Each structure stands twice: as C-alpha cells, then as structure tokens.
Backbone:
C-alpha cells in the first residue's frame, strides 16, 4: 500500500504557491513604503530587485534551454 | 602555553599511520586528527609562532601564522572534521590516507611562508586529492582522475617554474605580494589560476569532482580551490584583471548548472560561480573586498560541504545522482532533505544564513569602487545561484515528480556531519560578529540593515517565483540524460581526434616513403646488374690494342698542351 503524502495532492501544492505569491506581493508592498539605502540610482526604483530577480532567472533558464541545442550530447559521448 | 608545530606534521604523521592501524582505530583516527590539530591551532593562535628550516642556503618558513593563514587554517580544520565525521563509516584505507594527506598538504601550503614549501605542499594536495577520485574504483573515475592529475601537475610545474625564476631574480624565496608585472609573476598567476578554476581551465573541476566517491567530494570541495583563493589573496590582491576573470566565473557556470543532469556536477559548476565572487573580491583588493572574500570563503566551504554531503548521502543511499532519475526522496530521507535546504538557503544568501553576511560584502565593495557593470553581473549571478543551487538541487532530488525510489535515511554519522555543517551555517548567519572578528582587516560592515534584508528577500522571492512560473507553464527545461560540451571538449575529443588523424597521416606517409625507397633500391640494383650481367658494358672483354690506342691519344694530347 502506498502512503499518501500531503504534498502529493495537487490542491495542496497550489495552496503553497498561492501563499508564496502573496508573500511576493507583500514584499513589493513593503518596498513601496520604505526608503532604501542605495549605491546606484536605479536601486531606488520601485521593486528593482524583484523585477531584476524575476527577469534574470527567466532569461537564464530560457538561454540555458537554447544552449542545449549547441552543447547537449548523448550521455556516452566521450565513451570510446 | 603556545605551540610551534605546523599542522601539516600532525596530518601527515597520521596519514602515515593509516596503513598500520586496524580498521576500528583507523576510523577513529580520521576525525581525531582535525580535533587534535584544532587544539594545536588554538595554541598557535596564542603566540607568534614560527618554524624555519634552512635547506641549501634557503630559509624555508614552514609556519607563518598571521591572521590570513590562521583563518584558513581554522577553516580547513573545520572542513576536515566535518568531512571526517561524514565519512566515518568508510573503511577504505585509500580514502582515509588520501583525505589526511590532502587536508594536511592544504594546511601546509596555507601556513607556508616561502615559495619552495608552497610548491611542495601544492603538489602534495594534488596527490592526496586524486586518491579520493581513484577510490571510486570505476574505469570512468580512473580516467577522470588521470585528466585531473594532469591539470594539477601542470599547475604545480608552472608554480615551480615561476618560483625558481622569482627566487633567481630577487634572491628571496618569501611568498608575499607578487603581482603580474614579471614573467615569474605571470607563471605563478597561471598556476594559481588553474587550481582556482579560471574560465577555460575550469573543466578539471567539473569533470573530476563528481566522479569522486560520495564522501571524497566533500573533501575535494573544501581545499584545492580555496587554497588557490588564499594564494591569490596573498600574492595578487588588487590585481585588476582578476575582476573580469572572476565575473566571468560567476556568470557562465550558472547556464551549465541549469541544464546539467548530474546533481553533484551542478554543485561543481556552482562552486566555480562562488569562487568567482571571491576572485572578484581579491581583484578589487580594498579592505572591504578582501574581508568579503575571506569571509565568503569561510561560509562557502561550510555550506558547499553541506550541499555536497546531502547529495553524497543521496548517492550513497540510492546509487543514483542524476536529476532525471531522482525525485520524491523527501518521503524516505526527510532529515537529509531538511539539511540540504539549510545549505541551499545559505548558498542563496537568505537572511539568517551564512551566505548573506559574506557575499554581500563583495557586492558592496564592487559598488563602492563604482564597478557598476560588475555589480549588475554579480547580482545576476546571485539570482542565478539561487536558481540552480538553492532550488534545483533540493527540488529535483527530494521533490519534483516521485521517482518511486524508497530508501532509508543516510547513516547516522552522515546525518551528524550534515547537522553540524547546517548548525555552523545558521550560527554564522545569525552571529556574523564571530566571523568578522577573525577577518584580516577591521570590519565596519553591517549586514543586517532594513534595506539589505528587504532587497535580498525581494531578489530571492522573485527568482523563486520565476522558477515556479516557468514550471507551471511548462517552459522549464526537463532533466535529461546527457552530457554538455565544455572546454574539456578540446582535450577529450579534439586533441585525441587530431592525434589519431595525425598518427594515421604519419603512418600513411611512412608507408609511402617505404614503398618509394623500395622502388628506388630496385632501380639501383637493376642498373648495377644491367652493367654487370653477361653482355653488360662493364662485363665486356676489351682487346689490348684498344688500351694502347687510348694511351697514344692521351700522350698526344699531353704533347699538344705542352707546346701551346
């Protein structure tokens, strides 16, 4: 008999994701009402770090995915 | 009470005992050595110890204990102890001797005050470490170990060459600031660069480390590259070319890490990314940057060891390490999963975890010097490292789709090793003042400000959001059984291919020359035979009158010449 785990339910995973999204919104909200210390002028833009992190990761993953066309070989590529 | 025993003596002495001791004692010996070494280190710390030996007119400084070497010394003792506890179940003499030889040599190099001892311990570390790869005892690991050894020995030879030239030029073997203005300086720089994993010569690391044993990679991750960072900080602080080199090191491996299937290889790529931050710090060379580098080395060694231990535990329990074959392991290894997540949070620099209090110093130093392009690249790399080490590692091993693998928790000693490393990650993250007090320069840096916590949380949460969104819409690249080409293509494929082609061409040329030669010889033999065979010119019989006639002609000619 297979034990059923809480995370096996898709519903529960979606619940976690919703909580996570709410956290993101919350952090953005704090950013709006908080004067941050800044070294460069763009750091002062609203949500700079959030947008940067999101876009950077999307670019990273999509670029890496494209790189697979160039770099990916069969697992035994180097075997004689 | 003070001590003046170089730590390397303790470790190498113990390594020499390994072949002699019976199994049970041997297992106790390995963790006991760094503990005993730690006591010795404490006494070293109390005084201003020195141990000089004169060999062939050169003063070898086997024990230079200043704030930099003592800090690395402490770190290497901690790493050796964590690794030894994690590997407590291992009975293999090769690995036990290897890890003591390796850790001892690394300690010897860190405390070496002169270039000659540095070269000796540099090579010692290469030899000790390769045992941990060979101990996997598979043909694949053996081949990787040989490739690894070639890189390490080339690095050692360059270091030796540079040291010899430098000693010839200056008459002193002291290892202090070197710089890249002289030939010797460049040779030593390249030697350190190879061991540091500079771009294009980084493949020994990503190639060989994941082929080591489950416990061996923990040791490997701690010493070689950090020894190189130490040597850079000692000899090349403020060398500007390190800034772009280090930035490249932070950036390119994260792309590989996203598509790599072997999770320990993902961690190897992520090591290069993290060392890149340290190299940038050395290149900037301000007190803030150097403090950042040294403190990042400290937190890095511990959280990286923790992550590699957790993957080692997975490999040990399931025999698998590819992301494509794992998943859902939190059901059978919940403690390992939790400890792995602590390591992931630390490497991602979450507030309250160790990476947060060290990595940001390097970014602040870059900003303070106005390197805004570098700063943006480092920020990109920070988001990227969270993506592959912080999320990908725990996600694909312990969560994702359930692979159906059901196993048991890792052995107790493995979990204790991981738990101690996790505790250190949290302690450093929560009480950075303890770490800061050990740094080589006075620290005026405050990591826990409202701004800093907020921006870091924002960066990390939205990076994680990107992962979730990409996964939900199905754009995230799946884990696939594959290898990815890297610059090791040159020596694993192109050079052997060129060598085979070259060999074939030389062989063909040889065959042709042989044929030509044989044909030429035949022709000569034919000509000689032709002249001598019956009826040939030289075999003819000549009448005596003909000779008399020739002599008459010659004498006549002499007479004519005489008159003219």
Residues:
């Amino acid at each position: 008999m297979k034990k059923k785990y809480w995370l096996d339910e898709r519903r529960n995973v979606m619940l976690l994701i919703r909580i996570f999204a709410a956290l993101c919104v919350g952090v953005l909200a704090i950013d709006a009402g908080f004067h941050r210390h800044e070294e460069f002028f763009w750091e002062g833009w609203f949500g700079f770090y959030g947008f940067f992190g999101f876009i950077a990761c999307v670019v990273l993953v999509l670029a890496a995915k494209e790189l697979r066309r160039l770099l990916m070989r069969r697992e035994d590529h180097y075997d004689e | 009470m003070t001590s003046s025993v170089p730590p390397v003596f303790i470790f190498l002495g113990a390594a020499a005992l390994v072949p002699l001791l019976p199994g049970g004692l041997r297992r106790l010996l390995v963790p006991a050595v760094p503990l005993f070494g730690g006591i010795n280190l404490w006494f070293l710390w109390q005084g201003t110890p020195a141990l000089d030996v004169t060999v062939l007119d050169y003063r070898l400084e086997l024990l230079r204990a200043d704030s930099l070497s003592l800090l690395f010394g402490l770190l290497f003792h901690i790493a050796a102890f964590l690794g030894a506890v994690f590997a407590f179940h291992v009975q293999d003499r090769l690995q036990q001797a290897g890890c003591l030889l390796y850790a001892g040599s690394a300690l010897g190099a860190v405390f070496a005050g002169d270039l000659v001892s540095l070269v000796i311990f540099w090579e010692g570390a290469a030899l000790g470490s390769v045992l941990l790869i060979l101990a996997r005892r598979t043909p694949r690991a053996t081949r990787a170990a040989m490739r690894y050894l070639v890189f390490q020995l080339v690095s050692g030879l360059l270091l030796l060459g540079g040291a010899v030239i430098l000693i010839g030029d200056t008459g002193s073997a002291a290892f202090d600031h070197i710089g890249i203005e002289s030939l010797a300086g460049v040779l030593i720089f390249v030697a350190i660069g190879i061991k540091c994993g500079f771009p294009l010569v980084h493949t020994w690391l990503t190639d060989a480390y994941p082929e080591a044993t489950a416990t061996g990679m923990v040791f490997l991750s701690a010493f070689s590259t950090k020894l190189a960072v130490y040597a850079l900080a000692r000899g090349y602080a403020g060398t500007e070319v390190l800034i772009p080199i280090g930035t490249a090191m932070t950036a390119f491996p994260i792309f590989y890490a996203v598509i790599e299937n072997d999770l320990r290889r993902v961690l190897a790529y992520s090591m290069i990314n993290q060392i890149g931050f340290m190299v940038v710090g050395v290149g900037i060379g301000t007190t803030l940057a150097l403090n950042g580098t040294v403190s990042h080395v400290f937190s890095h060694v511990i959280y990286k060891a923790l992550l590699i231990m957790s993957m080692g535990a997975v490999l040990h329990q399931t025999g698998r390490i590819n992301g494509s074959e794992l998943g859902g392991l939190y059901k059978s290894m919940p403690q390992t999963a939790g400890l792995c997540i602590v390591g992931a949070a630390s490497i991602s620099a979450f507030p309250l975890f160790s990476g947060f209090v060290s990595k940001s110093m390097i970014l602040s130093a870059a900003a303070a010097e106005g390197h805004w392009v570098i700063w943006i690249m480092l920020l990109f790399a920070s988001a990227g490292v969270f993506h592959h080490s912080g999320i990908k590692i725990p996600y694909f091993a312990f969560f994702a789709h359930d692979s159906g693998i059901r196993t048991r928790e890792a052995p107790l000693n493995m979990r204790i090793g991981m738990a101690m490393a996790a505790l250190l990650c949290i302690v450093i993250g929560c009480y950075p003042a303890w770490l800061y007090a050990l740094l080589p320069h006075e620290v005026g840096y405050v990591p826990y400000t409202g701004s800093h916590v907020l921006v870091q949380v924002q960066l990390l949460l939205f990076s994680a959001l990107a992962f979730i969104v990409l996964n939900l819409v199905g754009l995230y690249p799946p884990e696939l059984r594959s290898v990815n080409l890297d610059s090791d293509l040159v020596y694993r494929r192109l050079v052997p291919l060129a060598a085979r082609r070259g060999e074939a061409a030389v062989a063909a040329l040889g065959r042709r020359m042989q044929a030509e030669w044989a044909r030429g010889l035949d022709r000569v033999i034919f000509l000689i035979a032709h002249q001598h065979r019956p009826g040939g010119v030289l075999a003819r019989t000549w009448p005596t009158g003909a000779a008399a006639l020739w002599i008459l002609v010659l004498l006549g000619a002499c007479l004519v010449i005489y008159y003219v």
Q: What stands out?
A: Chain B has 20 helices and three strands. Chain B touches chain A through 53 residues (CB under 8 Å).
